[in-house]
């Protein structure tokens, strides 16, 4: 195929980036560009990439677009360096986000409402909405220029995916990492389910809560002293079973001279009691003497003392409960140094009460609050009341009984449900756990085997999260999710973990086509102890959706049932990327499960992006309309401009970005238009020479080894340097260093090379010199297209399609080309680059011209000039 004439180009003011991008999309579809790229790289080294699954119940926002752009840049680059990259889109289909929408739509208020409706009907309602916006997602992702496989996507609701999740759980049980127990967990009373600790951390708010000091009279104290505790959760007081003090703190018994009442608090917290400290009188008013100290003792001396309960609801536990305990978790930086213990509603409370024999591990746990957060019948004074709403009445009740020392309020951070936006409570629930604490040291070691960009997120935020990790409650008392594959006898003495569909069919004798609850809950397994022991039934829980997404490396490939060899060759993944919030989410669950299963991290390299906020620094809000619609921005300026704006911002360093539409316009004005004008100048002058010669100009055949012009030498050397530097930074996943180097090169190309070379490019130096100048600019433009293609896939394709007419053997798409690799000894002429840089910094045109004249005498050709 011979060299062809270049096509005409539009004037800059007539060029529409969005319109041209639409044409490129049509071109890619016509030539099956994405599929063909994959075919061309088949058999090449694999580059493994995991795409975290979003929910399809809402439309993509700037956070999704940002993460998707980062993923696209890195995987396109991997393809250009000769790797085969499987890029499958995934969907998170289960869990609270889906159930919450259905609950709202169908006015479902409780678990009983679901059971009346039928789990089968409820789950099918959930199934009907999970892919509601999948087409919109595909349209937006494709319009942004991201190449990813939607046809071969994975869904967490697919039976094959769910079966692999079962395999993961059974493997964890084999390793002794699964147990069932009570755990005080963040609990959503709206969604009727416990949340993981990282879910609870997603939505903290500053709220004002009651801050009260109830009194607990000690039995048999000669002074009638009462312990005084402090709490911001009065609703937990009906469940009080013990008090806790620090064994090494000093405590004082003090007497109020006005009322004669005697209290015991930590000495360092005496000031927290009303009127406890002496006050000097003002303007003739008498001094207030403060409380009289009757005695002083260590917290250890208080251990075992009994007190009068606040309420009689658990009077039957007198003798075992209502005692003072010792534990070093008690602090003296707030409150009274005395902590009331309600073991059903506090993690430390539960532990302390177990250790002191107030309650029995594995035994019944007094918990008078139901799944909806309402008091049960045994709390007779407040039965049926929502706990947070009962605070005021509980306070009034205790005040009337003379048991309230102080009533106030406090502003503090409090966790809210990330889906329903209602306050969480902490509540003991039966749950299935992965023993993360058992593998903590392995987690910390595996974290060191990964590369995070930026590094400080790995070394500080993620390391600290791993170091303080608790056991992971992976079960949810919900309906729409992958069911826990555990069948248990009624006496809880026999249980079977099922790891596959085939195993379930063998154990039950039934054919299984789907693994959701309404397909398998009725299946029973005969007891292995004999017919008299009946059958094993499945526990009701489903998996936390974070467990499902954390299983993605295995489940997307239906491992180990299929694709075993390929998975083992490509695990861990070479690359993952998501937002900063995933340090407590997907990044964490990936690391936990891969460490537990294989003692390996799930990924080798990770880019962590920051949050995209509204221009005023606030969270983007549809209700407030404080940000422009992403697709409107794309329709104005093009996807490439938005991509470049995002990846050239602080957000790729995990810092926040205050999104400004003017910034996207600035990318078009300051980067794309000068770049386009340089391309247009090349095309027009090549067309002029072709018209003069009566034939196409073979720019690709120009021998750049014979270059003598100093600016030609300089721009070629600068291109070599830029290409090498970008390669180094891309291999290090430092996009924040990549884009500035590219933009600096574009600025030098347009503002130095083309600006000072215009006359030569127009033919002032004669045909041979003009051809050399045009050939140099052509080569540099083609190089830039290939290097910039991962960042700006549309514009580089647009230019490449015209420029490749001079290169008959060039691939049909810039995205099928290889990343430019200069020879090891390619000239970089660093001194020359420095000289031209100094020239460009000259303060006046006259000075710049003088420096330029000094540089413009011909140089001898380089023995291995360029590539």
Automatic annotation (TrEMBL):
Pfam families linked: Anticodon_1, tRNA-synt_1
Catalyzed reactions per annotation: tRNA(Ile) + L-isoleucine + ATP = L-isoleucyl-tRNA(Ile) + AMP + diphosphate
InterPro entries, per the entry: aa-tRNA-synth_I_CS, aa-tRNA-synth_Ia, Anticodon_Ile_ABEc, Ile-tRNA-ligase, Ile-tRNA-ligase_type2, M/V/L/I-tRNA-synth_anticd-bd, Rossmann-like_a/b/a_fold, tRNAsynth_Ia_anticodon-bd
Domain Methionyl/Valyl/Leucyl/Isoleucyl-tRNA synthetase anticodon-binding per the UniProt entry, residue ranges: 712-843
GO terms under biological process: isoleucyl-tRNA aminoacylation; post-embryonic development; reproductive structure development
Family to which this protein belongs: Belongs to the class-I aminoacyl-tRNA synthetase family.
Major enzyme class: ligase
Keywords annotated in UniProt: Aminoacyl-tRNA synthetase, ATP-binding, Ligase, Nucleotide-binding, Protein biosynthesis
Cross-referenced NCBIfam families: ileS (TIGR00392)
Name of the molecule in the record: isoleucine--tRNA ligase
All copies of domain Aminoacyl-tRNA synthetase class Ia, residue ranges: 24-654
EC number(s) recorded for this UniProt protein: 6.1.1.5
GO molecular function terms noted in the UniProt entry: aminoacyl-tRNA deacylase activity; ATP binding; isoleucine-tRNA ligase activity; tRNA binding
């Amino acid at each position: 195929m011979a060299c062809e004439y270049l096509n005409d180009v539009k004037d800059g003011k007539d060029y529409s980036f969005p319109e041209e991008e639409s044409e490129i999309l049509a071109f890619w579809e016509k030539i099956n560009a994405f599929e063909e790229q994959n075919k061309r790289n088949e058999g090449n080294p694999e580059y493994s990439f995991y795409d975290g699954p979003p929910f399809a119940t809402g439309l993509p926002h700037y956070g999704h677009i940002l993460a998707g752009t980062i993923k696209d840049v890195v995987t396109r680059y991997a393809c250009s360096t000769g790797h085969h990259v499987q890029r499958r889109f995934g969907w998170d289909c289960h869990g609270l986000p889906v159930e919450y929408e259905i609950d709202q739509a169908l006015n479902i208020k409780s678990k009983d409402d679901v059971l009346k409706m039928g789990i089968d009907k409820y789950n099918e309602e959930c199934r009907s909405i999970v892919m509601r916006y999948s087409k919109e997602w595909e349209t937006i992702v494709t319009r942004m220029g991201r190449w990813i496989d939607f046809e071969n996507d994975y869904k967490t609701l697919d039976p094959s995916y769910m079966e692999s999740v079962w395999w993961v759980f059974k493997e964890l049980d084999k390793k002794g990492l699964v147990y069932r127990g009570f755990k005080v967990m963040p609990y959503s009373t709206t969604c009727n389910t416990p949340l993981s600790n990282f879910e609870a951390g997603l939505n903290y708010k500053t709220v004002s809560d009651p801050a009260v000091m109830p009194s607990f009279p000690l039995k048999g104290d000669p002074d009638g002293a009462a312990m005084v505790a402090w709490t911001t959760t009065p609703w937990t007081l009906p469940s009080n079973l013990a008090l806790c003090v620090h064994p090494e703190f000093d405590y004082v018994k003090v007497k109020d001279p006005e009322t004669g009442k005697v209290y015991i608090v930590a000495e360092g917290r005496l000031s927290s009691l009303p009127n406890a400290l002496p006050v000097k009188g003002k303007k003739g008013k008498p001094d207030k003497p403060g409380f009289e100290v009757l005695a002083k003792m260590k917290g250890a001396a208080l251990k075992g003392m009994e007190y009068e309960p606040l309420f009689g609801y658990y009077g039957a536990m007198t003798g075992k409960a209502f005692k003072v305990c010792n534990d070093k978790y008690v602090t003296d930086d707030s409150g009274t140094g005395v902590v009331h213990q309600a073991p059903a509603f506090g993690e430390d409370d539960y532990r302390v009460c177990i250790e002191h024999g107030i309650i029995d591990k594995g035994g019944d746990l007094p918990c008078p609050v139901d799944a909806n957060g309402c008091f049960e019948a045994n709390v007779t004074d407040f039965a049926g009341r929502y706990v947070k709403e009962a605070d005021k009445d509980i306070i009034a009740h205790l005040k009337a009984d003379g048991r309230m020392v102080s009533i106030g309020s406090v502003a503090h951070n409090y966790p809210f449900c990330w889906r329903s936006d209602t306050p969480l409570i902490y509540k003991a629930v039966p749950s299935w756990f992965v023993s993360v604490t058992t593998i903590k040291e392995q987690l910390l070691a595996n974290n060191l085997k990964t590369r995070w960009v930026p590094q400080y997120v790995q070394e500080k935020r993620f390391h600290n999260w791993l170091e303080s990790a608790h056991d992971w409650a992976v079960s949810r008392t919900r309906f729409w999710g992958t069911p826990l594959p555990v069948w248990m006898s009624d006496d809880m003495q026999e249980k079977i973990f099922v790891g596959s569909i085939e195993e379930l069919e063998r154990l039950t004798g039934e054919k299984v086509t789907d693994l959701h609850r309404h397909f398998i809950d009725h299946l029973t397994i005969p007891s292995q102890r004999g017919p008299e022991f009946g059958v094993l039934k499945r526990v009701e829980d489903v998996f936390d959706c974070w467990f499902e997404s954390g299983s993605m490396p295995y489940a997307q490939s239906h491992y180990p049932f299929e694709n075993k060899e390929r998975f083992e060759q490509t695990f861990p993944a070479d690359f993952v990327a998501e937002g900063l919030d995933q340090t407590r989410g997907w990044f964490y669950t990936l690391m936990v499960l891969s460490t537990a299963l294989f003692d390996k991290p799930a990924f080798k390299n990770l880019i962590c992006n920051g949050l995209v906020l509204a221009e005023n620094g606030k969270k983007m809000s549809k209700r407030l309309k404080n940000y422009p619609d992403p697709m409107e921005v794309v329709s104005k300026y093009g996807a490439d401009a938005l991509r470049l704006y995002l990846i050239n911002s602080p957000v790729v360093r995990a810092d926040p970005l205050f999104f400004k539409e003017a910034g996207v316009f600035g990318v078009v004005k300051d980067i794309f238009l000068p770049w386009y004008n340089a391309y247009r100048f090349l095309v027009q002058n090549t067309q002029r020479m072709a018209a003069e010669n009566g034939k196409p100009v073979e720019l690709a055949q120009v021998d750049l080894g014979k270059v003598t012009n100093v600016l030609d030498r300089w721009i070629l050397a600068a291109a070599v340097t830029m290409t090498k530097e970008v390669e180094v930074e891309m291999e290090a996943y430092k996009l924040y260093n990549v884009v500035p180097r590219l933009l600096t090169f574009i600025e030098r190309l347009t503002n130095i090379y083309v600006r000072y070379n215009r006359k030569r490019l127009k033919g002032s130096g004669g045909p041979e010199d003009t051809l050399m100048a045009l050939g140099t600019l052509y080569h540099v433009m083609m190089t830039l297209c290939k290097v910039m293609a991962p960042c700006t896939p549309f514009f580089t394709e647009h230019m490449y399609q015209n420029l490749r007419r001079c290169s008959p053997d060039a691939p049909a798409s810039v995205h099928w080309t290889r990343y430019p690799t200069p020879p090891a000894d390619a000239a970089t002429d660093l001194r020359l680059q420095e000289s031209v840089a100094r020239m460009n910094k000259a303060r006046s045109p006259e000075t710049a011209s003088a420096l330029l004249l000094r540089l413009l005498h011909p140089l001898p050709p380089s023995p291995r000039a360029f590539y």
